[in-house]
């Protein structure tokens, strides 16, 4: 869409008629994409953006690079939400190529496979599975009953996805108006799952806002785990039942998170970190190969000592 047409639809002013192909984050946006700045802590990202245009407040507009068009507005995040709908793909494609299914793949009855989708060889797709448009699944992957894989998602080789899991559902993103109404931010990215990944029953992995939620090779995910939009779960991580990972958090390789533990959003957890059951991560963990427990989080040995002292108080 042309930038001036986008602005007119949402009630903003812009005279430029350059073509905008997509929305993206400040650092990832190209010279044909639109981005935004809401939080001042990302002001350095604004200074270095290559975006064609940016939604920005008057206060922050002086930091916009000369190659980027500043679209001034009071609430950039709210206008991003409104514009995201304009770039949302169709829920279901009516036109496109029939799905391609590789040799040796077994597809049980009552399976839906969308347009332009490709399934590799020697896979098993069980009854009730929904595989949306433009989905790619590698070789030797097993999809158990009633798994839902939304459009545009990619799954590698030798994966196992157990019953009831949903891959590519919308991330939880809303912008508030001044009177408290919630405006949906359309999640226009996807989910990419590597090879040799096992995902338990009734898990949910949300699609990204702009790019991809990523599950790398060799990850093991137990039942009832939730991974929010734009997360990256690096190779070899283990997530035990009822773990919750908030949006845009990165787990570096071989992190282990015990049952009912959780991480807040926009954090990084160092390689080979272990979070004990019910541990709550609220700050990034930068030192690798340590074990943590509790809420607020303590190093595991300290937490055990604390529990011992509390126990002695009750005697």
TrEMBL record:
Protein name listed in UniProt? UDP-3-O-acylglucosamine N-acyltransferase
Cite the SUPFAM superfamilies for this sequence.
Answer: Trimeric LpxA-like enzymes
The record's EC number reads 2.3.1.191
In this protein, which residues make up the domain named UDP-3-O-[3-hydroxymyristoyl] glucosamine N-acyltransferase non-repeat region?
A: 17-86
Q: Which GO terms describe its molecular function?
A: N-acyltransferase activity; UDP-3-O-[(3R)-3-hydroxyacyl]-glucosamine N-acyltransferase activity
Question: Which EC class is this protein assigned?
Answer: transferase
Pfam families named in the record: Hexapep, Hexapep_2, LpxD
Q: What does this protein do?
A: Catalyzes the N-acylation of UDP-3-O-acylglucosamine using 3-hydroxyacyl-ACP as the acyl donor. Is involved in the biosynthesis of lipid A, a phosphorylated glycolipid that anchors the lipopolysaccharide to the outer membrane of the cell.
According to the record's subunit comment, the protein's assembly and interactions are: Homotrimer.
User: Under the cellular component aspect of Gene Ontology, which terms does the record hold?
Assistant: membrane
Q: Which gene encodes it?
A: lpxD
